[in-house]
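[Q] Does anyone have a clean C-alpha cell version of this?
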Amino acid sequence: MSKGTKQKYKLWYLIKIMEELTDDEHSLTMSEILTELEKYGITAERKSIYDDFEAMRDLGFDVVGDDSGRYYSYFLGSRDFELPELKLLVDVIGSSKFITEKKSKTLIKKLESFTSVYNAKKLDRQVTVSNRVKTMNESIYFNVDIIHTAIAENCQVRFKYFSINAKKEIEYRRDGEFYYVSPWALLWNEENYYLVAYDEEDEKIKHFRVDKMNKMCLVDAEREGAKVFSKFNVAEYAKKTFGMYSGEMVNVKMEFDNDIAGVVIDRFGKDVRIIKNDKKKFVVSEEVQVSLLFYAWMFGLGDKAKILGPQSVIDGMKEACAKQAEMYK
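[A] Here you go.
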C-alpha cells in the first residue's frame, strides 16, 4: 500500500490504536499517538488528530481527555462490551460442553478484540479451557445454523444420530439411517444443546442432542407438527424432563423437607405450587417425564424427599433402588 493510500485510512488506524492501546487505566499522550500512527506509515499534525477525535465522537466513540497525569492524554471510555461483560461471556464459552475446546479458544480470542490489549490479558486468565469436559463434534456450529435456517424457512431437516462407545468410536443409531424431523426449537439444558422437533413417523415431539448429529442438511418439505407446537412451551418441557431423558409424562405428587425448598424451586421454577404439609414438610404436584434421571434426582435428595403417588411411580422408584442395591451385594 502506497504512503498516499495509507493516509486515507488515518482515521481507521487512529480508531484501531485507541481501541487496542487505551482503556480506563491506560491512556496515550498526543506524542504517543503520533508515534503509533507512524508505525503504520501515517504522518499527522496534532490539529488533525483533534479533528479526528471529534469525528470519532460523532461516530459514537467515547474519546476521553485525561489531565490527571503529567501530560494530557486520551483514552476510550465506554465500549460496546465492558470488561465484566466480556469476562461473563468468556466464562460461558469456556464452560459450555457443547462448544469444542478448539472453537472455545477461537471465540475467546475474538472476544479479546473488543477490549484493549491490557484487558485482553485479564480475559486470558479468566478461564482455563483445556481442563473442561468438551464435545468432540466440530460440526455442531453448522448444525445449529442449519436448524435456525430450517425454522426460519419452515422446512424439515435430516441427519444421522450417533453415540460414542467405550472405544470412543461413533456408533450410529438406526443402523446409520437418516432421521427426518421438523425442527421447532433449540434448547440449552444440562450444559448441552438440544433440537426439539416433531417426528411425523411416530407422531410425537422428540429431542436430540445437537452435538450427536452429523451429515445434517435441509429437506425440501414443509415442517409438520404446527398444531402440536402451537401449544408447546419449551421452558416447561425442559423443566419436566430430567437430564433430557425421555419417559412417560406423569403428574407426580412429591413431599419435601422445608429446608430444600430452594432446590425444588430451582428445579420446577418459581411458579411451582407449594402446599404446606406440616411445619417441616411441603407437597408439590408436578407433571414430569418419569425416567431413571428423575428417580436419581429424588434419590439424591435422600430422606428429605419422597414420592407420594401415583403408585406406578412409587413402584418404579422401588425397582430402581432395588436394582442398584443388588449391584453392591
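[Q] Thanks! Anything notable?
[A] The chain has a mean pLDDT of 87.
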